[in-house]
């Protein structure tokens, strides 16, 4: 989709220059790569400074200014295919605020104003990441080559693996960031604020008997770490595939092999399922292209993984996690509350999440200093799909899913490595939304996958 300007899509518009340059065409304003490239390339630095996920809404400000400048210079501004679906979703988010004061059955009663901060924060992320999507899609090969963007995403997979290893060997590693120092104690002591500005290596949880570190760096939460692992892993493969250097390919293979260790140690079953979804999807795409050798490659890799699990303590870790489903009861409880809430307000939802009264066994069981996980669970905090249903109803859920589903359908004929990796990332997000929430960095990487697919369609095979 392109905003219509004189000259039309795909042409260079000109405007009359001033008297001193009469008859000379004014050069279109280029979009610099730095707002996006620096956010990705220096993400570990932003994390250490305490900016972390906040770097994306921060960078969205110059992106928006630069897009307006480009549009004012007479340059066409492209909008992503299916953008009407996404705009409908944003409208549903705003409209659902009308129900913010409602208290669904079984949830803690609060005034609408006390819920407004979370709503504003969530909407600001959706809006700023929308700017990021449009900006990434309007960058040209001269401004930010697709291969460079793929390399940046592959780099972030390496960062994810390194963060996972850090979480394993130094699970209690943490420090006070510069941004955290600047905040009042009453603000920085809140758990949610800590997840944004306080760098730490892992979340310490008791899932298989005894407290164990679960990798989180540099993404804030273990579940976000697992979600991003699945969204980014394909880009390392594509970057290595495009390189002519054997050392780069060898590094990618070693990195993928090493990544198994923190992936298993994370005790993250959603991550394990996500990896399986990505592998099976990619294999199916290649088989449909007539490249049946992929079947042998998958069998070989699967066999090597089984041997590694049997021959190392990793197998015991997997068995212990499968035998201890402590989170199953909580997830089932929250899914029931989300479905019940959806039934009470099916069209627009409730505008945001809600806290349950007590826990799943009794309304009298709630959070305390002795048991922080005993109750008052967040309805909609256990997966993007359940949050969409509960917070934004049918309209928001259909619009959100419709945008990404339309993208998969629109770009289904893209058989390039970028096309397959991008669609695999979006497919993995569909499975992940049953147990992971998308804000903020997972949605960043979903949008960048969409932007790469979009640019591939416009600019041709750049893989």
Automatic annotation (TrEMBL):
<feature type="transmembrane region" description="Helical">
    <location>
        <begin position="225"/>
        <end position="241"/>
    </location>
</feature>
<feature type="transmembrane region" description="Helical">
    <location>
        <begin position="430"/>
        <end position="453"/>
    </location>
</feature>
<feature type="transmembrane region" description="Helical">
    <location>
        <begin position="79"/>
        <end position="100"/>
    </location>
</feature>
<keyword id="KW-0472">Membrane</keyword>
<feature type="transmembrane region" description="Helical">
    <location>
        <begin position="248"/>
        <end position="265"/>
    </location>
</feature>
<feature type="transmembrane region" description="Helical">
    <location>
        <begin position="271"/>
        <end position="288"/>
    </location>
</feature>
<feature type="region of interest" description="Disordered">
    <location>
        <begin position="1"/>
        <end position="22"/>
    </location>
</feature>
<feature type="transmembrane region" description="Helical">
    <location>
        <begin position="45"/>
        <end position="67"/>
    </location>
</feature>
<feature type="transmembrane region" description="Helical">
    <location>
        <begin position="385"/>
        <end position="409"/>
    </location>
</feature>
<keyword id="KW-1133">Transmembrane helix</keyword>
<feature type="transmembrane region" description="Helical">
    <location>
        <begin position="120"/>
        <end position="140"/>
    </location>
</feature>
<feature type="transmembrane region" description="Helical">
    <location>
        <begin position="152"/>
        <end position="173"/>
    </location>
</feature>
<feature type="transmembrane region" description="Helical">
    <location>
        <begin position="293"/>
        <end position="314"/>
    </location>
</feature>
<protein>
    <recommendedName>
        <fullName>O-antigen polymerase</fullName>
    </recommendedName>
</protein>
<keyword id="KW-0812">Transmembrane</keyword>
């Amino acid at each position: 989709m392109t905003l219509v300007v004189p000259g039309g899509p795909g042409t260079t518009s000109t405007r009359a220059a001033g008297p001193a340059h009469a008859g000379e065409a004014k050069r279109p304003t280029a979009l610099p790569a730095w707002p996006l490239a620096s956010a990705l390339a220096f993400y570990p630095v932003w994390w250490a400074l305490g900016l972390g996920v906040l770097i994306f809404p921060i960078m969205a400000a110059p992106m928006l200014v630069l897009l307006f400048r480009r549009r004012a210079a007479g340059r066409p501004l492209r909008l992503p295919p299916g953008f009407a679906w996404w705009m409908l979703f944003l409208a549903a988010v705003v409209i659902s605020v009308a129900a913010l004061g409602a208290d669904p059955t079984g949830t803690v009663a609060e005034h609408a104003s006390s819920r407004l901060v979370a709503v504003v924060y969530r909407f600001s992320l959706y809006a700023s990441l929308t700017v990021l999507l449009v900006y990434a899609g309007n960058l040209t090969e001269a401004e930010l080559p697709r291969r460079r963007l793929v390399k940046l995403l592959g780099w972030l997979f390496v960062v994810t693996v390194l963060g996972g290893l850090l979480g394993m060997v130094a699970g209690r590693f943490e420090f006070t960031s510069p941004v955290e120092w600047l905040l009042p104690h009453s603000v920085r002591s809140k758990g949610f604020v800590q997840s944004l500005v306080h760098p730490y290596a892992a979340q310490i949880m008791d899932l298989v008997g005894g407290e164990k570190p679960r990798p989180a760096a540099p993404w804030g939460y273990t579940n976000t770490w697992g979600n991003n692992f699945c969204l980014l892993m394909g880009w390392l493969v594509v970057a290595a595939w495009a390189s002519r250097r054997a050392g780069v390919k060898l590094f990618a293979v070693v990195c993928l092999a090493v990544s198994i260790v923190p992936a298993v140690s994370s005790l993250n079953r959603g991550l394990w399922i996500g990896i399986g979804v990505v592998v099976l999807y990619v294999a199916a795409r290649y088989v449909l292209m007539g490249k049946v050798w992929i079947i042998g490659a998958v069998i070989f890799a699967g066999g090597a993984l089984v041997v590694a699990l049997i021959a190392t303590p990793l197998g015991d870790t997997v068995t212990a996690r499968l035998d201890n489903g402590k989170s199953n009861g909580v997830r089932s409880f929250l899914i029931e509350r989300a479905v019940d809430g959806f039934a009470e307000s099916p069209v627009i939802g409730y505008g945001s999440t809600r806290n349950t009264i007590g826990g799943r066994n009794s309304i009298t069981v709630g959070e305390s200093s002795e048991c922080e996980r005993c109750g008052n669970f967040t309805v909609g905090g256990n997966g993007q799909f359940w949050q969409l249903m509960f917070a934004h109803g049918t309209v928001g859920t259909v619009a959100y899913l419709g945008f990404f589903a339309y993208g998969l359908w629109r770009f289904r004929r893209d058989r390039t490595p970028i096309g397959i990796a991008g669609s695999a990332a979006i497919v993995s997000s569909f499975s992940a939304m049953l147990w992971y929430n998308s804000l903020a960095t997972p949605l960043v990487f979903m949008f960048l996958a969409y932007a790469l697919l979009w640019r591939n369609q416009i600019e041709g095979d750049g893989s």
